[in-house]
Amino acid sequence: MELSIVQSILLIVLAGLVPVDKYGMTFGLRWPVITSVFAGLIVGDMPTALYIGGTLQLMSLGIASVGGSSVPEYGVGVVVAVAIAATSGGGVEAGLAIGIPVAMLMVQFDVIAKLSCGALVQHAQKLANEKNFSGMYRTLLCGPVLSFLTAAIPMAIAVFVGGDMVNAVLNALPAWFTGGLTVASKMLPVVGVALLLTYMPANKFFAAVMLGFVLVAYFSMSMLGVAIVGAIVCLVYWGYCADKNAASANSTVMGELEDE
Amino acid sequence: MELSIVQSILLIVLAGLVPVDKYGMTFGLRWPVITSVFAGLIVGDMPTALYIGGTLQLMSLGIASVGGSSVPEYGVGVVVAVAIAATSGGGVEAGLAIGIPVAMLMVQFDVIAKLSCGALVQHAQKLANEKNFSGMYRTLLCGPVLSFLTAAIPMAIAVFVGGDMVNAVLNALPAWFTGGLTVASKMLPVVGVALLLTYMPANKFFAAVMLGFVLVAYFSMSMLGVAIVGAIVCLVYWGYCADKNAASANSTVMGELEDE
Amino acid sequence: MELSIVQSILLIVLAGLVPVDKYGMTFGLRWPVITSVFAGLIVGDMPTALYIGGTLQLMSLGIASVGGSSVPEYGVGVVVAVAIAATSGGGVEAGLAIGIPVAMLMVQFDVIAKLSCGALVQHAQKLANEKNFSGMYRTLLCGPVLSFLTAAIPMAIAVFVGGDMVNAVLNALPAWFTGGLTVASKMLPVVGVALLLTYMPANKFFAAVMLGFVLVAYFSMSMLGVAIVGAIVCLVYWGYCADKNAASANSTVMGELEDE
Amino acid sequence: MSKETVLTKADIRRCALRWMPMAVNTFSYQYQQAGTVVFALGPALRKIYTNDDEYVEALNNHFNYFNAHPWMANLVLGAALGIEDEGGIAAKEAVQGFKVALMGPMAGIGDSLIWVLYPTIMGSIAGSLALDGNITLTLIWLALNIAFMFVRVWMFQFGYESGTKLISVLGDKVAMLTETLSVLGLIVAGALIPSVVKITTPLTYTAGESVTEIQSILDQIFPFLLPVLATFVCYRLMKSNKVSISVLILIIVAISMVCAAFGILS
Amino acid sequence: MSKETVLTKADIRRCALRWMPMAVNTFSYQYQQAGTVVFALGPALRKIYTNDDEYVEALNNHFNYFNAHPWMANLVLGAALGIEDEGGIAAKEAVQGFKVALMGPMAGIGDSLIWVLYPTIMGSIAGSLALDGNITLTLIWLALNIAFMFVRVWMFQFGYESGTKLISVLGDKVAMLTETLSVLGLIVAGALIPSVVKITTPLTYTAGESVTEIQSILDQIFPFLLPVLATFVCYRLMKSNKVSISVLILIIVAISMVCAAFGILS
Amino acid sequence: MSKETVLTKADIRRCALRWMPMAVNTFSYQYQQAGTVVFALGPALRKIYTNDDEYVEALNNHFNYFNAHPWMANLVLGAALGIEDEGGIAAKEAVQGFKVALMGPMAGIGDSLIWVLYPTIMGSIAGSLALDGNITLTLIWLALNIAFMFVRVWMFQFGYESGTKLISVLGDKVAMLTETLSVLGLIVAGALIPSVVKITTPLTYTAGESVTEIQSILDQIFPFLLPVLATFVCYRLMKSNKVSISVLILIIVAISMVCAAFGILS
Ligand SMILES: OC[C@H]1O[C@H](O)[C@@H](O)[C@@H](O)[C@@H]1O
Ligand SMILES: OC[C@H]1O[C@H](O)[C@@H](O)[C@@H](O)[C@@H]1O
Ligand SMILES: OC[C@H]1O[C@H](O)[C@@H](O)[C@@H](O)[C@@H]1O
């Protein structure tokens, strides 16, 4: 079976929407079995699509992007797999054989998109400071476009050039590149944390930073637990500040009395 | 063998004393092997009584009412079992067959007694506020009477109506009733804790409540550990208050000097 | 083979240097395989020495004196074993048969040396207070001499009287003596801790003592973790003191203004 | 603050002997052992407060929730009585704070040592011997219990003396003591929530072969979510004064029965 | 401090609807979700700040690092908007402190419940059924997701109302609130170091048969040594203003590639 | 507070070279490494305090209990010397607080890395090779040890410079530093009780087949009860001045022997 040009474009759009929806509206395309319904409608072979969707759904249970981490994107894998299964004679196996590696490759593409977004948002902030607000909004809107492309490009290659080409590209990527991006995805959160520290009074309240660290490093506390302990500290500190204010108000009153 | 009327009454009294003693003097009737000595003296068959007492003692190792929880009362089970063993032809087996279920049933009776005691003590407090102090004491003395009855009533049924009747009653109790009382015994401590919070400055020192919670919920600390940490907090707070008093005394002195 | 007098003396000196070096310069004699090189040079049988050194090295992995604890001293064991192996006909086996017990015996000798050092240092402090400073230094220099003797004496016995004599002495030591010294080595650190508490404001900051205790007793924290938590407490306390000073400085200023 | 103490050794002993047989025998979920506390200390308080109104005030103070191991409670109640004898009605809050602060630890120590360890050691041997018809250790156990009664009376007196000393040393810092102890009491109260309110749900969610326990989901949202919620609701209801405690208890019993019937709670 | 609020219900809803589809779609390592925060709140902020300079100041404030679970963020951002509408530019620090303080907990709850638990339950069943060609649960799942969208819009509004209330209650204590929240924020930041910066080394030291893992040596020296060092170095570089953040990110990517190539980091 | 410093680089190096060979060689239970501390720093202190009385006062200060890993101690002692050179006798308490506060952590790091990890790695290989008559790694190990000696001298100097800087920065806040460090020191002291005083009892209580370990009962009553009690008793005795430390040590040795003979302690 050959895909019509409309079908091809619809599939590319569907693939592109997977990360956009995953990172935003959460209509559900991040979950393979839901995506497969739409892929099935497009290629007109619902049983195969559902079978692929179910398979990848079960394969991806428990995988989620947490704290900005990049994970394999089986929702994209579904679209690729359904397309390949429908066109090549190889059926479901052939589809999965290309779909799964593409899903894995999304980790690297995701890192690249997030790196690029850094420049985007920086530019948006620059525009904001130049009071070019509509420019700022337009720039920010490029974010979802990037998300879209991370999946649409490999999908387009798969659809127009063919699955073998995708595999060839995959194998051609050097290990230091893919591995390096994986390591980078683990190291880069440090930028955000360090930034957070720079614009808060980290020097004055360095003990607070250490406390948070100790709670996780030594007691493996969850973020919720950290928040509860943090709330305790805040209540105590609040009480202390209130006392201090009251006392100094007191002295001020006395000081003022004197002046009269 | 038939039990004489005196023997019957003595057995009922002995059973009734088990919870009274368990909850008070701790002469030892909460422990089956001790109770069995007295039951043996009453029915005049020490070897059987001791055998039953030893069996139930080993069966009940480690069971204890902690924090107001209601647990099976094998001390009462012993008296029932010894009585049944002595009268029915079934011997020790027949005795245990009724004694153990009765011991279990004490959980439910105990909850009912504790619920009733709530009304009793409430009434006693009312009398206290009406300055009817002797009435108050009399009311409170009904507590042990209730304890007594929780065991004496099933014992009386066993002695006068017979073990089969006890079993029939047991089976007739609906599951929602017995199960419900079990659940209630776990939920009701919440009343005490909430009450505790209402008459202490829980708002002002809400951080203290949270700290206690975190120590148990996140670190599974024992009450002793909580107390040690609590002592640390108290020492710090004491020092802080002393400092504050000293400082304000200081300002006051200055204020007074001015007035002169 | 007979050891020449020079060889004997060199071996005794080498053995004596083991604890001195272990407790000081850490040239490396605390590690059997290093010591064995020197022992081998002295007796002129490097292969045997290395074999004994390697054996005892592997046997002693992970053993270390921590917090003033006394542990078997396989470095001394090596010298004894090499000497015995070289002189007796029994070879390596005979050497280890004496060397290992001697290494173990060093636990007891070490406790005795540390007990004696107490008197030494006390005397040195006395001399210091009498402003006899050179006397003080001389007294302190007896410390390494003691260390030296703990190993040199058993070595001398082994070399001059023979290995069997060493074994005989070992067996003659009563259990209460060796066992008692072992227990003492675990109890005696209490002296240091208690002393530490006496010359610090333990009463004023008793909460701090409790906090350190809780962190280790309830949370099994490492000393490093304790230090981090301690640093948090210090930063908070430092901030508090600074606030307090500022406030009282304030009042003082006001007080002074009034005086004018 | 501190004044002449009025209680004699005999008064103290009488309190102990009124406490011991009654201890948990008036136990209810809202007052716990408070009924017996009043019963035991009543006559001594009468001696301290000749004025009726102060006496009633003191009684009401002791009608507050109290629960400790009944043997260990002797120490706490003795000391509380000492504080009260030394400080009078002005020490009311200190007395209450003191009792609440110490009841938790005393329950923990007593329950594990006296309710679990002691009978496990004695019972395992006495029980085995009894199976062979040997009564010796059972009698020894009985004798030990009786001996402990004397120790418990002494503990009450020891507590009393410590309490009076404490207050006379503190002088005019009793208000500070009260506040500090209430902090400790509140820490203990917070710790009681997860340790004594044992509400869990046995509900599961079965789908295909996978079974999900609702309780584990709740634990992920917030540890001890149900006890915390229950405490919060009860606390709010009590504070609002819209519902009496007796009614609240009946509601809880009713909820328990319904939830047990439908398998919602366990 | 507090002033007339200017935002209408429709304004809030609009913010929610701008937030939801964009949320993580502008995610970068230095700003995280801040780009979308600005995008979503922009029009509402414009209404609050008619003055251009204040508006820019507010935007810059929201360009600061923010990251939470995109569904739960609705609560936080709603409340932050409420605080800002009530407090104006004077509440800038409070807004920032508030967002930082709450983002960590919200991420934790949302990630475990919404990203892991919910799809595990739905997906395991829907997936199994799909293998048999049964589409029912998949469609139900889709419908649920759509239903949740309405809940998320409501959460934003609920947050907004809570935020305005908070500030009007506090009155002139907003400065104190800011400082207190920054303490909470810093505790969260300290906790983020070991939980999100996942730098470890796979290096081993092989000698004879014994293999020593360098990572375990580092753990002995100091727990999470590499993340702590990396944070420290980045923090110093940023404070010194000697290197721009973009360059820093490029350096990190370069280091990652080199270290991955030589197997130094994993 | 701060004054001209008098020590030269050579003085510092001399201290390091006096410290290193003597370190634990004067170890006793009451002074631990204090003897060597005095021996090592003595000449430098003499230069700082030309006045005899101050010198004696300083020496007595250093005769206080000190114990750290002998290599890592170089850092601590160097810094302490720096503080002393900068602050003079007025910084006496700060010096002491500083040493006590840092000795625990330094012992922990040094013991695990230098006493356990380093010789485990080197020893396991060198030992295996030696069994085959191969001496290479043994000699490398020796060379490494010698190389480390230079590092240790440098550590002492580095510590000294950090110490002087610290004090000159603090100015007149040295009294506050002292108090704060004593808080840290006391936390460390509290932590030392359960970690270095290893008193346990091997006693068991056998009844029928059931064996009860007394130690586990003690642990239930209070964790680390025996070390806590021993510390308390020793502390009281020392405070009361009724018994000299030497006598106390003899008593402990005697108790140890008796208890070991009867199997009461292990
Ligand atoms: O961890 C919070 C949050 O971080 C990033 O924004 C993404 O990984 C989200 O999926 C995640 O919920
Ligand atoms: O837990 C303390 C205490 O609570 C209740 O009063 C009873 O269950 C006692 O048996 C128990 O000792
Ligand atoms: O624990 C610190 C330190 O204590 C004593 O001084 C000795 O046991 C050393 O070997 C050890 O490093």
UniProtKB/TrEMBL annotation, chains A, B, C:
Sequence intervals crossing the membrane: 31-53, 74-92, 141-163, 175-198, 205-238
Keywords (A to Z) from UniProt: Cell membrane, Membrane, Phosphotransferase system, Sugar transport, Transmembrane, Transmembrane helix, Transport
Cell location: Cell membrane
Subcellular location, principal: membrane
InterPro entries according to UniProt: GatZ_KbaZ_carbometab, PTS_IIC_man
Membrane topology of the entry: Multi-pass membrane protein
Pfam family name, one: EII-Sor
PANTHER family: N-ACETYLGALACTOSAMINE PERMEASE II COMPONENT-RELATED, PHOSPHOTRANSFERASE SYSTEM SUGAR-SPECIFIC EIIC COMPONENT
Name of the molecule in the record: PTS sugar transporter subunit IIC
Automatic annotation (TrEMBL), chains D, E, F:
Matches recorded under InterPro entries: GatZ_KbaZ_carbometab, PTS_IID_man
Superkingdom, taxonomy of origin: Bacteria
Record has Transmembrane as a keyword: yes
Alphabetical list of Pfam families matching this protein: EIID-AGA
Transmembrane spans: 113-131, 137-155, 176-197, 245-265
Keywords: Membrane, Transmembrane, Transmembrane helix
Signal peptide bounds: none
Protein name: PTS system mannose/fructose/sorbose family transporter subunit IID
Originating organism: Thermophilibacter gallinarum
